[in-house]
Design a protein that fits this description.
Layout (H helix, E strand, L loop, with lengths): L41 H9 L12 H9 L4 E4 L13 E4 L8 E3 L5 E4 L9 H14 L4 E3 L11 H4 L9 E2 L15 H13 L3 E3 L6 E5 L4 E5 L5 H13 L10 E8 L2 E8 L5 H19 L7 H12 L1 E3 L2
Parallel strand pairs: 2-4, 10-12
Antiparallel strand pairs: 1-2, 1-6, 3-4, 3-5, 7-8, 8-9, 9-11, 10-11
Length: 321
Amino acid sequence: MAKKRPQTKAKRPQITDGEIPVVGAREPCPCGSGRRYKACHGRAAAQAATELVHRPFEGLPGECDWVALRELVPAATAELTLKDGLPEGVPSVTLATVLPMAWPALRRDDGSVLLGLQNDTASGDISRDLADTLQRALTTEPGTPVQGRRAPADGPRLQDLIDLDSSFEPVVHSGFEFWVPDAENATPEVAASLERANAAAIPTVRLTGVDAAYWCETLDKNHLRWVMPHPEEQLLDALARLHAAGTSSLGEGTRLVGSFRAHGLTVPVWDLPTSVGAEDIEKPAAEFAERLAAALATDAPLTPDERRARGGLTNRQVTLS
């Protein structure tokens, strides 16, 4: 039998992990191994994509408002202050709940950047995905939207880019006209998206007397949805104490009906009569905040009535994220 020739393999260039770009899962891995990316260096990226960060906005100024703008508020903006300052040619960076055509970000003609918050993200860390989108928006051509992609697993997070000592002051809008400087002269595509978004927006107002509390109007009743920073178990105990004592409402005709879980925080929800507007609930909300602070400071065991109240509140929790 003829001898088989020994096979030789050409040497492949050595590439360090830090130089390997992110590509599609079924594409050849850029390291030159001959395997698909998902079976090679994409394994780490895939693992990172499945690891959910419980509180992605923790450490950012205004964490509770970040959660509200991500999950509860239709139309709002907030100016962002970057840790290293604004790059040349970028006059401002603005966070927006939603952008036209659900763009992840937009570099306007004047160089300013709009970063969309309510977009689907590719990994389990919203902060990392948003940071990747923001970095690309800062360098893209003016007048260009930024498309979504899977962020590198070792990329920066928002906490690495935003000045953590800056303020975060959301401005709630009645519609989405903030998308374009001149809404009347928008392109037909943007104008149609603007019309659809405005039609679906629920009237919402941010209270001024307490933090991260948002009044909204619906057909049958109004609501107050209040994102709170306290640990969930401690907050539920405090709410149960107030509920059992008959002091958990915000006035006549209002009632605490349950809570949301969203991005590691708890969001108590009150039903309000349709006649109760945002301005009507400012004083009751401030008074409730004082009662809640006192209840949070109590560490006595729950009474039987308080335990029953807590069970009812727990049964009416809904997880948003």
